[in-house]
Amino acid sequence: MTMNFFNPVTTQTWTNGRHLVRCVKVIHETADVRTFCFMAEQPVLFFFKPGQFVTLELEIGGEPIMRSYTISSSPSIPYSFSITVKRMPGGRVSNWLHDSLNVGDELVVHGPVGNFNIMDFPADKVLFLTGGVGITPVMSMTRWLFDTNANVDVDFIHSARAPRDVIYHRELVHMFSRLPEFKLHVVCENKDDIGEAWAGYRGYLTQPMLELISPDYLEREIFCCGPTPYMNAVKAILRETGFDMAHYHEESFAATPIDVQEDVQELAEQAEVAAEEIDYAGMLSIEFLGSGKSVRIQPSETIHAAAAKLGLHIPKACGMGICGTCRVELKSGEVEMDHNGGITDEDVEAGYILSCCSKPKCDVVVDF
Ligand SMILES: Cc1cc2nc3c(=O)[nH]c(=O)nc-3n(C[C@H](O)[C@H](O)[C@H](O)COP(=O)(O)OP(=O)(O)OC[C@H]3O[C@@H](n4cnc5c(N)ncnc54)[C@H](O)[C@@H]3O)c2cc1C
Ligand code: FES
User: Fold this and answer.
1) Which of 215, 250, 285 marks a domain boundary?
2) To which H or E segment does residue 138 belong?
């Protein structure tokens, strides 16, 4: 590889879309967490907003399957990006990544997208609250703030099961030992099975613990990511103590992924059964240009569901307007799009919609 390969002048910049990338490194973080680093075949500068995520487009056992993963690296190191994946017992994609994705393998990613990022909510003082693998977006934010010498006061409270489960522990300790305005606190949940000497906080995060660690937390911009019960507990603490929730931002990993095949098959079957009993009054026509097919649906149904009724596989991961995977171009008509940050204003202006969360307001034509 020549130095020219990394020439920042001639190197393209990453934009939201579908990209082929190659796995260049696999790092064992903890017993059940691994980081996968990727680069593009042709050099690309991977710029994104720290906290954003990508969606992997995979084929496992002959079936298409997509899952979203936060970018855990920082755009301050832009020639590659990484995701950090926790093995979920029985989980299809996380286990496949751990067991089958090797250095040199190629895969397709969509993104980067996501509203949960530090650039859109700049602040002088932040509080990072994370649980388990929910540390990934906040690690990207921390690395970014550290690398760019941002003058930001960081209180970082991470909750883990046990010391051995603390992801990126040594890197965090290193970063936080170098800047007085970066303060790291790790809370280990498991009281009986710590596995090594632990002088830090124990148990679950509580209001007194929060107040002790970060006495000025009411004045901070808060970024929170972790298991749903953890985030619910955090929100309850903040609401009870009068925190202005306009300054609270969270990311949930708990979107229910729907396997494309099952989804399409189920809807196609439903459509077949119901075809003879349909009352067409009030229904709207959805035409798909690429396939030349059209179908009539209720205004309460999504464009994605309309495609599925015709057996068309629009790629889908989160099903709730956060990952951007199901983006299609609207050629005519209007939709009501209830998304969660999976599409940029520029894409909306250019006529794109997220089919999983867009419902027709009139007859529409879609480029798919
Ligand atoms: C925006 C976003 C960012 C994310 N970032 C990260 C990240 O940085 N790191 C990370 O590790 N994860 C992240 N996730 C979560 C990730 O997308 C996956 O959901 C996760 O890896 C699990 O996927 P899986 O395919 O392994 O598990 P799945 O196959 O989806 O299964 C999930 C769980 O459900 C159980 N299950 C599956 N099917 C059934 C069934 N029929 N009945 C009962 N139980 C069932 C499985 O046993 C498993 O425990 C993120 C998610 C989102 C939406
Ligand atoms: S599938 Fe994620 S935005 Fe539609």
Assistant:
1) 250
2) helix 135-147
